[in-house]
Write a structure and sequence with these properties.
Helix content is 27%, strand content 36%. With 151 residues, it is an alpha+beta fold. The protein has one domain (11-138): Thrombin, subunit H (Beta Barrel). A seven-stranded antiparallel β-sheet has the order 2-1-5-6-7-4-3. Helix 1 (10-33) packs across helix 2. The longest helix has 24 residues, at 10-33. The protein is globular and about 60 Å long. The N and C termini lie far apart (63 Å).
């Protein structure tokens, strides 16, 4: 039986909705505007999916391969974020945890990483994360109902 004197916390509801919107916005941003790659050796990199970000860290995933886990070394892993075909920001991360997951019907290995504060790009990383936070608060979905024409 429900207590009629129960107080409903709307702030909690709003915070959950805002967090859902933030994650959806980040994923759209990551999948469509930023190419993310992990360095696997001199002159070689592999694409990785950026799952989420925070001031101190990020979550990435790579297709699951039973033949061998990536990365071999879990400290100081170089991750490149490409904002165009030839301009990137490289960050250095330490892998803190791993777990297998299924996303969209495909198997992945997901990595929880901390971004190294002693790397030269850490300040730029924190500004990038702050931009994503601000963007998610004001972004709107384009429903395609406005056409583009000439003046």
């Amino acid at each position: 039986m429900k207590d009629n004197n129960e107080i409903i916390n709307l702030d909690l509801f709003r915070n959950r909705k805002q967090e859902e919107k933030k994650r959806k916005t980040e994923r759209i941003f990551f999948h469509n505007l930023v190419g993310v790659y992990g360095m696997v050796g001199p002159g070689k990199m592999v694409p990785v999916d950026l799952v989420d970000v925070s001031d101190e860290g990020l979550g990435i995933q790579v297709p699951y391969e039973s033949a061998g886990a990536w990365p071999k070394d879990t400290n100081g892993v170089a991750i490149r974020l490409y904002f165009s075909t030839d301009n990137f920001m490289e960050i250095s991360v330490d892998v803190k945890n791993t777990r297998p997951t299924i996303d969209g019907g495909y198997r992945y290995m997901r990595y929880g990483c901390s971004v190294r504060a002693d790397h030269r790009s850490f300040e730029a990383w924190t500004k990038f994360v702050n931009f994503l936070k601000a963007f998610s608060e004001v972004s709107e979905k384009d429903n395609g109902n406005i056409s583009v024409g000439s003046i």
